[in-house]
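so ive been stuck on this for like two days lol. basically i have the seq below and the ligand is zinc ion, smiles is in there too. i just want the complex predicted, nothing fancy, no docking runs or whatever. if the output looks off dont worry ill sanity check it later, just need somthing to start from for the group meeting slides
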Amino acid sequence: MIHPWLQPTWTRLVELGERLPHALLFVGPAGLGKRALAEALAARLLCDAPRADGHACGHCEPCLWRISGNHPDLQRVVPEAEALVASEADGAAEAGGKAASTQIRIDQIRELQAALSVTGHHGTRRVVLLDPAEAMNGVTANALLKLLEEPPEGCVFVLVSSSPRTLLPTIRSRCQQWHFGRPDEAALACWATHADPGVRAMLALGGGMPLAAERLAEGGGAALHARFVRDIGGLQPADVLRLAGQWEAWLRSKEALAAGFGLPELADWMQRWVSDLAALRLGGRLRFFPAQEGVLAALASRMSVAAASACYNELAQIRKVSRHPLSLRLVLEDMLMRYARAVAGARG
Ligand SMILES: [Zn+2]
C-alpha cells in the first residue's frame, strides 16, 4: 500500500520505467512508509505484468513466489533483530539465547554477494532491499559499496534510511537519492479521519509520523508510554545508574523491538519531556505529555529555564549519536545524569 503522501513519488518512480537507476536511496524521517514504498517498487520490478497503476499484479508466478516469501531474486537485507521479530510473528521458533544484532552484519553482505554472483532465477531482474542503511558500520558499508560500484546486470538496489548523514558519502553518491519530508497538514488530516483513536493518541509521541504512531499503538505504545512516564517522573538522582540498567534491558526487549522503540525514540521522548518542562516554566502549554501535567508542573516549578534549555540541547546532541551508540548503557547513563542534574540543580 502506498500512503497518500507518497503517491506522487510512486507515480514518478513508475514513470521512470526502464530508466530507473540501479541504486536508489529513500531518505526521510522514520514512520513515513519508505519501506512500504520500497517493497511496492520491488514487487513491481519483479512482476511479469504490472497493473496500469504501476503495482505488481499479484497473480503471476514471480508475484506468487514473492507473496509466499520465496522469491529467489528478491534479497532483503535487514538487521537480524528485525528479521527475528518478523519470523516470530509468523510463528517460527525462537532463535538461541544470543541477543539478535540491530546492525547489518558483514556476513549478510557476503551472503548477498554470493547470492548475486549466480544468475537470476526468473529472467535477469533482481532486487535488493536494504533497510536501514545506517545500520551498517564502515567495513560493512564498504563491502556493499563494491556491489554498488559493479552491480550485477538487471539488479536494482533500494536502500532506505532515516539518518542519511551517518552514511558513507561514497554510498550516498552511488545512489540516486529520493528525499521525503513530513506529510503535510492536508495529508495528515485525511489520515487522521480514518485512523483509530488509539493510533491518533500516539501521533505526538511518534513525532507526528503516522506510521510511527501506528507501529507504537500496535506494539503496545501505551504501555511503553506509561512506563516511560512512571520512570522519568519518579526519577531520584541516586537512582540514575539503576534506571539506566533497567532501560538498557527494556530497549533490548522483544516488546520494544516489535514496537520500533529504540534509543532514538527514547531520546526523542526525553527531549519532549524536557521541552514540556520548559514550556510549563515559561507559562506555555504542554505539547507532548498533557496527561502528566501534575508531575511536570512539580518538576518545572523547581527547574530554571536555563537548566531546562541546556538539558534540551544536551539531549539533542545525544539524539544525534543515538542510532550508532558505542555503548547503549553509557548513552543511557549520560542522558539520565544530565537530566537528573538539570532537575536537581533546580532543587538546590
Ligand atoms: Zn505479477
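The pocket of zinc ion is lined by residues 47-49, 56-57, 59-60, 62-63 (CB under 6 Å). The CA atoms of residues 274 and 312 lie 6 Å apart.
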